[in-house]
Write a structure and sequence with these properties.
2 copies of one chain form a homodimer. Chain A is built from 14 helices and 27 strands. The first copy, chain A, is of the alpha+beta class and 491 residues long. Chain A has 3 domains: 12-92 and 122-285, Bira Bifunctional Protein, Domain 2 (BirA Bifunctional Protein, domain 2); 295-413, Rossmann fold, CATH 3.40.50; 418-488, 2-Layer Sandwich (Translation Initiation Factor IF3).
C-alpha cells in the first residue's frame, strides 16, 4: 500500500487533507461544503458519541429532538444573537418541485412559495426556547436538562473536512434553571465534562477558560471554552459552554412562578461539541505514517497479521491467532484478524499504520514453534518479540499505557510550545513562527484585542481559569493587567 | 392526575393524539408539520435505535453519514424515482440572510441565490449512489453494506405526530452488490431483521410480503414490507426493504470490474424504518388509561411507590425500597423510586399508568411488617400482594411474561380481525366496518387494484410471503387468481 502522505513538516495542511482521505475518514461530497463521513470515520465518531452521551446522562441530562427548521422571524427575536450569527445559512423558500414544463428534469414550483422562509438550524436556541415556553410555568418544572444530537448547517465559505463544513454533526445541550447561580454552575459543570472527555478519551490536554467579549457566543453573557494545541502550533477550540443569562427567556417570554410566588425569567445555558473533535483528534496525535488513535477511541484496537507461506502454515497460525483473538475479546478489546490472502503482510502493516490501529500482532511459523509473537505499537512505531503465553494481559496493559503516553506526549508538546512574553516584539515573533500558545498581559479592552488581531492574526483563545493573579502591563497598550491571557492563531 | 383521555371506542384518532401529548412523547412545533420529540418519547426511540443498530451490525453493516442536501438535478437522474417521489420537499434556494434595509429583522439576501437549488433529502438513494460511484471500481470493493441514521423531510400536507410528519428520524440502509442474487438475499435478510425486531421488541406481529407494482418504492424492482394491524382495524406499514436492481447504478453510472474481467452495473438495495414505529408501538398496545409499553422498550421498567404517612414511615419504607431497587438493577432492570412528597400515591399510580411503566411496586408500613409488597401489571391492570423476599426474581420473570403476553394479545387481536372473503360484497362490508385485514383473490392487475381503492379506499398491503397457492377468482373482475393478497385501510 503506497501511502504517499505528504510530511507534516513539508505542508501540514496538505498532510491533514490527505490523511483524512487516505485513512477513509471522510471526503467531500457533490454538495459544496458538505462532507461524507465514511464508515471508518463514523465508527470513531460513534465512540465519541457513546462516551459523551454516557457522561451527559451521568450528569442528569436527557436527550430530545427539536425541528431542523427555524422560522426566519425567530432569529431576530434575540437581538445580539441575530447580529453575531445566522447570516450565512441555508434558506428554504419553497416546498415543492414540478416537472419542467419546458423540457426534462424538475424545477421549483413557483406556486409553492412558503409564506415565511425557514432556516436550516445553525444552532437551536431560538426554536428550543420557543418550545420551552410551553414546558415551563413554575419552579417545579425546572431545571430542564436537555441535550440533542443533530446536524446543523452554517454556510461557510472556506471549508475543510471535519474542521469547518457547511453541514456538521454535533450535540447541543440546552438547559433551563430557576436561578442564575444554578445556570452558572451548569455552564461550568459541562465545560468540565468536555475537558474530562478531551483529556481522558481524546488524549488531548486542554486549557479551560472564558472567552473575551469579542469571541463570545452571540446572545451569551459568558462563553467558556476548552482550547487545544495542534502539532502545527495552531489553537483549536474543542468545545464551548455558554451562560446565556435570561436573554433567550426574555426574547421568547419564558417566565416562571418562583417558590416565593413572584414571576421571573428563566436562566439558560447551552453547550456543544461537534465533528470538529474528529479534526482535533487527527491533528493532535497523527504522524507522517498516518493516524495515531488513542486506544479508547479506536474502532479496532488490535490487529493480528499472519506471516506465512502456503495454506498449511496459514492454517496452523490461524488456530493460534483465533485463540489469541478470543482471549483479547474476553477482556473487552476489539480485535481484527486479517487473514486475507489478497494482500502481503507489508501492505497490511502499512494499511493499519495509516488507519491508526493501536497494536499490531504479527505471528509466523517460527513464532509458533517458539511460542513467541511480535507486538508493535502504533504511537512509538516500536516493536518487540514477546511470549504468546499471557499476551492478552500484556496487550491490555499496553493499551492503557498507550492511552496515557499519547496524552503525555501531547501534554509535553504543549508545554514546550507555550511561552510567556512581556513585549509586543516577542509576541509578534512567536506568533509569526507559529510556535504555539502565547501567554501575555492584555488591558482587557476589545480595541486592543482587535488591533492585535489585525496586526498579527492572533486572537485571545481564552482567559484561563487557572491564570495566576500577576501584576503586569498590556503588551500592546502598556496599560495595567492583572493576569495573562492565552493567545494563539486559531483554526 | 386527571388523565382525561378520550376513550378509544369513542374516537380512536383523538385518543391517539391526546395520548402522544399527555404521555409526554411528542408535540407539534412552531414549524408546520415538524414535531418536537420530548425526552420520554425520545428515550423510547433511543431503545429502538440501539436494538436495531445492534441487529444491523450483527448482520455485517456499518454506519456512515451522507449530506443533508441533494442537488436538484440528482433527483431527475433516475426516471421512475423522480416520477413517483420527491415533488413535495423542502427546497433551499439561498444561502444568506441580511438585515432588512426597510426596518427590523432579517430578510433573504437576494444576492445569495444558489446556482442550483438544493433539496433537503426525502431519502438518500441519489446522493449515496453518486458517492458510491467513487468507492466502487472492482468486485473487491463489494459488497458495501452501509446504514445511516438521519433526519429526512417530506412536505406532507396532513401530518400526525409520529405517523406522518414533514421531518422525521429514520435509518436508511444502502447496499451495493456484485450479483442480483446477493442483492435479493440482502433485501429479504433486512426484511427479516425488521420483522424480528417488530415481533420480539415492539411486540407487534407483522405480515411479511411484497408490494404490488402500484405500491412499490419509486425506482425499485421490488418492495418488501412488514404490515401491522392497529387496534382500530387499520393497517400500518412498519418497514420496507427495496430491491433496486441496477436502476440507481445505471442512473449514476456505477460499474465495476467483475471477477471475470467484464464490466457490469452494481446491484442495489435500500431499507428503512422511521419514528413511525413509535406510532405503531403506541397504537398497537395502549389502552384508555394510557400507554402500554413492552418491557424491552420501556425507559423505566419498574416504578416503586411508597405509601406512607409522615417522615418516619417514609424513611423506614425507603430503606427497603432502595434495597429492592438495587437488587432489580443488579438484574439489569431499570427502576425508578418515586419518593416525591409533592404528589399523592394515587396521582403517581395514574401518572405511571399513563406513561406505560410495565410494573408498579407499592409498599406501605403494613407491608414492611408483613414482608409483603403490592405488584401491579400495566398491561392487565391486575395487582397482587406478594412476598418481598425474592421479589426481584418474580419481577424479572414477570417482565418476560408481559413481553410475551403483550405480543400474544396483539397476535390474538390480529387473528380475530383478519378475514378471508370471496365476494366483493363481503369485501366492501368488512372494509366499511374497518374490521381489520381482509384476504382476498385479486387478478394481479393495477387497474383492478385502483378500482378497488377508488371504490373502497382499501389498498393491497402486500402479497404475503406465506400465502398458500390456491385457485380462486378475483373478487372484483372474476378473473383467475393463484393466491389471496392482503387488503386493508392504511395509515
Amino acid at each position: 500500500m503506497g501511502k504517499g502522505l505528504t510530511n507534516r513538516s513539508e505542508n501540514y495542511s496538505q498532510w491533514y487533507n490527505e490523511l483524512v482521505i487516505k485513512a477513509d475518514l471522510a471526503e467531500n461530497s457533490a454538495v459544496r461544503g458538505c462532507m461524507v463521513i465514511k464508515p471508518y470515520g463514523y465508527a470513531i465518531w460513534e465512540k465519541i458519541q457513546a462516551q459523551l452521551d454516557k457522561m451527559f446522562k451521568d450528569t442528569g441530562h436527557v436527550n430530545a429532538y427539536f425541528p431542523l427548521f427555524i422560522p426566519k422571524s425567530f432569529l431576530s427575536k434575540e437581538a445580539e444573537h441575530v447580529e453575531g450569527f445566522a447570516k450565512e445559512c441555508a434558506v428554504v423558500t419553497h416546498h415543492r418541485l414540478m416537472n419542467d414544463p419546458n423540457g426534462k428534469g424538475v424545477v421549483v414550483d413557483p406556486a409553492a412559495k412558503l409564506e415565511e422562509e425557514l432556516i436550516v438550524r445553525p444552532t437551536s436556541e431560538t426554536i428550543i426556547w420557543n418550545t420551552y415556553k410551553n414546558w415551563i410555568q413554575s419552579y417545579r418544572d425546572l431545571p430542564i436538562l436537555c441535550n440533542q444530537w443533530a446536524n446543523v448547517v452554517r454556510w461557510e465559505m472556506r471549508t475543510r473536512l471535519f474542521l469547518r463544513t457547511a453541514e456538521f454533526l454535533w450535540q447541543e445541550g440546552h438547559t433551563a434553571h430557576a436561578t442564575r447561580q444554578e445556570a452558572e454552575e451548569e455552564t461550568v459543570k459541562m465545560l468540565n465534562v468536555y475537558a474530562e472527555f478531551a483529556e481522558n478519551f481524546l488524549a488531548i490536554p486542554v486549557v479551560k477558560g472564558v472567552k473575551s467579549a469579542n469571541e463570545r457566543f452571540a446572545g451569551a453573557l459568558d462563553t467558556y471554552c476548552i482550547e487545544a494545541l495542534m502539532q502545527d502550533g495552531k489553537a483549536l477550540q474543542a468545545g464551548t459552554s455558554h451562560f446565556l443569562g435570561q436573554n433567550f427567556a426574555k426574547a421568547f417570554d419564558v417566565q416562571f412562578a418562583t417558590k416565593e410566588g413572584t414571576l421571573d425569567y428563566v436562566w439558560a445555558t447551552s453547550w456543544g461539541v461537534s465533528t470538529r473533535l474528529m479534526g482535533a483528534l487527527i491533528m493532535a496525535h497523527s504522524d507522517d505514517n498516518g493516524l495515531v488513535l488513542p486506544p479508547k477511541l479506536a474502532p479496532t484496537q488490535v490487529v493480528i497479521v499472519p506471516i506465512y507461506k502456503g495454506e498449511e502454515q496459514l492454517q496452523a497460525i490461524s488456530v493460534k491467532a483465533r485463540e489469541i483473538k478470543e482471549k483479547l475479546e474476553n477482556l473487552g478489546i476489539s480485535v481484527k484478524y486479517d487473514d486475507r490472502d489478497t494482500q502481503k503482510p507489508g501492505w497490511k502493516f502499512a494499511e493499519y499504520e495509516l488507519k491508526g490501529v493501536p497494536v499490531r500482532l504479527a505471528i509466523g511459523p517460527r513464532d509458533l514453534e517458539e511460542g513467541s509473537i511480535e507486538v508493535a505499537r502504533r504511537d512509538t512505531l516500536t516493536k518487540e518479540t514477546m511470549k504468546i503465553e499471557g499476551i492478552e494481559t500484556v496487550v491490555k496493559n499496553l493499551l492503557e499505557t498507550m492511552q496515557h503516553d499519547i496524552y503525555q506526549k501531547a501534554l509535553d508538546f504543549r508545554a514546550s510550545h507555550t511561552v510567556s512574553v512581556d513585549t509586543y516584539e516577542d509576541f509578534k515573533k512567536h506568533i509569526e513562527n507559529q510556535s504555539g500558545f502565547v501567554l501575555a498581559h492584555w488591558d482587557g479592552t476589545s480595541e486592543t484585542e482587535e488591533k492585535i488581531k489585525e496586526e498579527t492574526k492572533a486572537t485571545i483563545r481564552c482567559i484561563p481559569f487557572d491564570a495566576a493573579e500577576e501584576e503586569g502591563a498590556c503588551i500592546y497598550s502598556g496599560k495595567p493587567s492583572k493576569r495573562r491571557v492565552l493567545f494563539g492563531i486559531a483554526y
